[in-house]
UniProtKB/TrEMBL annotation:
Organism: Mycoplana ramosa
Metabolic or biological pathway, per its Swiss-Prot or TrEMBL entry: Cofactor biosynthesis; riboflavin biosynthesis; 5-amino-6-(D-ribitylamino)uracil from GTP: step 2/4; Cofactor biosynthesis; riboflavin biosynthesis; 5-amino-6-(D-ribitylamino)uracil from GTP: step 3/4
GO molecular function ontology, one term from the record: diaminohydroxyphosphoribosylaminopyrimidine deaminase activity
Catalytic activity: 2,5-diamino-6-hydroxy-4-(5-phosphoribosylamino)-pyrimidine + H2O + H(+) = 5-amino-6-(5-phospho-D-ribosylamino)uracil + NH4(+); 5-amino-6-(5-phospho-D-ribitylamino)uracil + NADP(+) = 5-amino-6-(5-phospho-D-ribosylamino)uracil + NADPH + H(+)
Physiological role: Converts 2,5-diamino-6-(ribosylamino)-4(3h)-pyrimidinone 5'-phosphate into 5-amino-6-(ribosylamino)-2,4(1h,3h)-pyrimidinedione 5'-phosphate.
UniProt KW keywords: Hydrolase, Metal-binding, Multifunctional enzyme, NADP, Oxidoreductase, Riboflavin biosynthesis, Zinc
Family membership: In the C-terminal section; belongs to the HTP reductase family. In the N-terminal section; belongs to the cytidine and deoxycytidylate deaminase family.
Cofactor note: Binds 1 zinc ion.
Residue span, CMP/dCMP-type deaminase domain: 5-127
Cofactor: Zn(2+)
NCBIfam families named among the record's database cross-references: eubact_ribD
Protein name per Swiss-Prot or TrEMBL: Riboflavin biosynthesis protein RibD
Enzyme Commission code(s) on record: 3.5.4.26, 1.1.1.193
Length: 375
């Protein structure tokens, strides 16, 4: 029998492993699984790219007969329903594991305790809730989509020493160094989608892809809030839309009654021709947008837009996590004020961790549990 300390140690390793494929597992969560016997890790698995095979099956295949009598550490309750693959609970039973330790119960109504019941009915000892807070943090996007039917939102802000995001009319202004910017690309690789407003799209002409060596194939879906379909046809987003998906969010055209309406329809046709998808949704109705994204299987959304977009998500109470990067330089006159600066967060957010990337300060804030949607 493993001690409580050993259970926590191996579960912590399983949770770290689960982070490897964040943003790459489609509608399935990225789950980590370790098979351990006599305090030795026999095998490890993480949900594969695209969502299958599941972590448990990968670990069991690696362990082979060694899995008999082992303890399985799984970050999410093993599935118990027949989908495109048989249930992982059945696979653990067939492999003869003696014990299963679980961090987080699965809220999916097809599972929701049934995986545990199946394991226990087969005589397997089950322990739940080990490092649950850490497990829920790693699975936050999946849990948000399952329970609240919307995407989990991370707001990323890069702020100068004097609390500014950039300079009016100057386009993108670099306020952090290359190490911090590299961390942002890692965050992009872990996100299902990234969002900006049309103002940022026109002023900065960003590409919004992950450009770290070896991670280019992990670029997220790119989304632009665009009331009037003004996304530039020859900007980087439209020109690369056939390589990395771009969604332009705009209201439904009111009709064919006047020249303005016909102009909107022509602009939509032009965007369609580039490969940009025009999603008919009022860009001001962010809750509807997040629900619509969740219905497409998008669990995590990184908001990188400017001050206006950042403020709109904050005012709507739809930000779950804030990544704040503060550089050492000042911008000065004509600067655009950030809605958040170090030490002055909106109510309901608490600092979770602080790091230094060269001269730049990184702070991660999360919404307090009592202020968060029920997960």
């Amino acid at each position: 029998m493993a001690s409580a300390a050993e259970d926590k140690r191996f579960m912590a390793a399983a949770i770290r492993l689960s982070l490897r494929n964040l943003g790459r597992t489609g509608t399935n969560p990225s789950v980590g699984c370790l098979l351990v016997k006599d305090e030795i890790v026999l095998a490890a698995g993480v949900t594969d790219v695209g969502g299958r095979p599941h972590a448990e099956r990968i670990a069991l295949a690696e362990a082979g007969e060694g899995a008999r009598g082992a303890t399985a550490y799984v970050t999410l309750e093993p599935c118990s329903h027949h989908g495109k693959t048989p249930p992982c609970a059945d696979a653990l039973i067939a492999a003869g594991v003696a014990r299963v330790v679980i961090s987080v119960l699965d809220p999916d109504e097809r599972v929701a305790g049934r995986g545990i019941a199946a394991l226990e009915a087969a005589g397997i000892e089950v322990e739940t809730g080990v490092l649950e807070a850490d497990g829920r943090r790693a699975l936050a996007a999946y849990l948000m989509r399952q329970v609240n039917k919307r995407a989990y939102v991370t707001l990323k802000l890069a702020v100068s020493a004097d609390g500014l995001l950039g300079r009016l009319g100057a386009g993108q202004v670099a306020v952090t160094g290359p190490v911090a910017r590299g961390q942002v690309h890692v965050l992009r690789a872990q996100s299902d989608a990234i969002l900006i407003g049309i103002g940022t799209a026109k002023a900065d002409d960003p590409e919004l892809t992950c450009r770290l060596p070896g991670l280019a194939d992990r670029s997220p879906i790119r989304i632009v809030l665009d009331h009037d379909l003004r996304l530039p046809l020859y900007g980087k987003l439209a020109l690369t839309a056939r390589d990395v998906p771009v969604i332009d969010v705009a209201p439904e055209p009111p009709g064919f009654d006047d020249a303005d309406d016909r102009s909107l329809l022509r602009r939509r046709a032009a965007l369609d021709s580039t490969g940009v998808e025009v999603l008919q949704c009022n860009p001001s109705q962010l809750d509807s947008l997040l629900a619509g994204l969740a219905s497409r299987g998008i669990s995590s959304l990184l908001v990188e837009g400017g001050a206006t977009v950042a403020r709109s998500f904050l005012d709507a109470g739809l930000v779950d996590r804030i990544h704040l990067y503060t550089g050492p330089a000042s911008i000065g006159e004509s600067g655009v004020a950030s809605p958040c600066v170090s030490g002055a967060m909106p109510p309901g957010f608490s600092l979770r961790r602080t790091m230094r990337f060269g001269p730049d300060l990184f702070e991660e804030y999360e919404r307090d549990e009592e202020c968060s949607p029920a997960l």
